[in-house]
């Protein structure tokens, strides 16, 4: 690491300082299945190749938010600002003991010994990022090589892409040998409606491939109506996925909301979004407790 001074981007939006207490009471044992840690940079510097420099948002703040909102556990997804240096995420998992699991970002040179060490710390998968504005392109063969390694540990793969790129990715996704979890419903353009071929392509993929799961996360990223409506335009999309695939959905806050430009969401409001898309106690129990526990805490 160089002696570079890591200064937060001038247009960076810092996470909400005082989120509301949610009106919706989460079921006992609820899991925030998509969140991140940034640094703190003095202890865990950001990667030289990063595309953005965020604020510090470390494990202590994450776990204070967990308790405030009423979650019991977290799944911490490696943030792109840390590249393939998973130390901040692994440290947060170790600190939380059995209350956290992790998703790593690794390169083709990762060894089984290194993967097993992360497994012992609570890591249960890797993330493949195809969002071009966030990461440089990686050949599919590299990802397939990594997938073969992590399959030996019974890990799964989280994939992040945008709706317009799904059609090209489908053959690759069907080659992966593990469970696949898609971030944020594949980022649909909600202005097109749930019946648009772009979103229906994703629904059909979940129908065709029973190992594909979806996070019904980030209404604040997908919405065009914004927070004043409670992100109402995203509800039909997430509700459809939850009701069609109730045993293959996950929910999460996405704290501390990297690269938000329009506004910084109130995490309490995001929790109150959940009963709008999982409208019965049975669906809420699956989304928030049963599914993440089966995927991340089965061993």
TrEMBL record:
What is the protein's name according to its record? Answer: Amidohydrolase family protein
- Annotated signal sequence is none
**Superkingdom of this protein's organism:** Bacteria
- InterPro entries tied to this protein: Amidohydro-rel, Aro_Compnd_Degr_Hydrolases, GLI/LigI, Metal_Hydrolase
Among PANTHER family, the record links this protein to: BARREL METAL-DEPENDENT HYDROLASE, PUTATIVE (AFU_ORTHOLOGUE AFUA_1G16240)-RELATED
Gene3D superfamilies, per this entry? Answer: Metal-dependent hydrolases
Give start and end of each Amidohydrolase-related domain: 31-296
């Amino acid at each position: 690491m160089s002696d570079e001074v890591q200064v937060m981007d001038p247009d960076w939006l810092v996470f909400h300082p005082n989120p509301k207490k949610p009106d919706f009471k989460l079921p006992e044992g609820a899991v925030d299945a998509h969140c991140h840690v940034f640094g703190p940079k003095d202890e865990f510097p950001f990667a030289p190749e990063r595309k953005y420099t965020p604020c510090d948002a470390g494990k202590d703040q994450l776990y204070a938010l967990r308790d405030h909102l009423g979650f019991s556990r977290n799944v911490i997804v490696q943030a792109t600002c840390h590249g393939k240096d998973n130390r901040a995420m692994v440290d947060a998992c170790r600190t939380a003991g059995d209350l956290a699991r992790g998703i790593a970002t690794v390169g083709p040179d990762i060894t089984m010994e290194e993967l097993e060490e992360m497994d012992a710390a609570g890591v249960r998968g890797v993330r493949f990022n195809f969002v071009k504005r966030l990461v440089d392109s990686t050949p599919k063969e590299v990802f397939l090589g990594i997938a073969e390694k992590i399959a030996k540990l019974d890990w799964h793969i989280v994939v992040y892409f945008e709706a317009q790129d799904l059609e090209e990715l489908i053959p690759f996704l069907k080659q992966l040998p593990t469970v696949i979890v898609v971030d944020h419903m594949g980022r649909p353009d909600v202005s097109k409606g749930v019946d648009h071929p772009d979103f229906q392509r994703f629904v059909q993929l979940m129908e065709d491939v029973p190992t594909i799961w979806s996070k019904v996360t980030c209404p604040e990223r997908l919405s065009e109506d914004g927070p004043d409506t409670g992100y109402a335009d995203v509800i039909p999309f997430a509700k459809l996925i939850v009701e069609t695939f109730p045993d293959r959905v996950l929910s999460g806050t996405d704290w501390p909301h990297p690269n938000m430009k329009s506004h910084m969401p109130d995490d309490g409001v995001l929790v109150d979004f959940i009963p709008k898309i999982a409208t019965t106690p049975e669906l809420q129990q699956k989304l928030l407790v049963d599914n993440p526990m089966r995927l991340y805490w089965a061993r």
